[in-house]
Amino acid sequence: QVCHGLRTPQLPIWLCSLSGRHSVLFGTDSRLLSDWKTERVFHLYFYNGQREQTKTAHLTIDTHSHPWEEDPCEDPSSPGKRRPPVEMAIRTKWAGATVSWNGTDPFF
């Protein structure tokens, strides 16, 4: 039998399989589970357990970003438009959100 705390987490957490690697995406604000207003700008943390990741990445998610601020002349297939898998996973829940890596190099 599964304990109640495991069925209903107190903090938002997602176990991910991105590009064949398992990782964890989690938040420390329990209001993300119950209050949609906290989904405007919030923080998530990403850890993939790989040797090249020396610390958990702190991500800032903005769900009310402005897609028209991106450079329209840039080719969508250019390296500048390539998005890390974790960003694409985040956008499956929050479509159009921008993800700031806060100084950490994105993981591809």
TrEMBL record:
E.C. no: 3.4.19.12
Full protein name: Ubiquitin carboxyl-terminal hydrolase MINDY
Enzyme class, broadest EC rank: hydrolase
Keyword Hydrolase applies: yes
InterPro entries: MINDY-3/4_CD, MINY3/4
Lineage, highest ranks first: Eukaryota, Metazoa, Chordata, Craniata, Vertebrata
Encoding gene, per UniProt annotation: Mindy4b_0
Catalysed conversion reaction: Thiol-dependent hydrolysis of ester, thioester, amide, peptide and isopeptide bonds formed by the C-terminal Gly of ubiquitin (a 76-residue protein attached to proteins as an intracellular targeting signal)
GO aspect biological process, one term: protein K48-linked deubiquitination
Pfam family, one: MINDY-3_4_CD
Organism: Phaetusa simplex (large-billed tern)
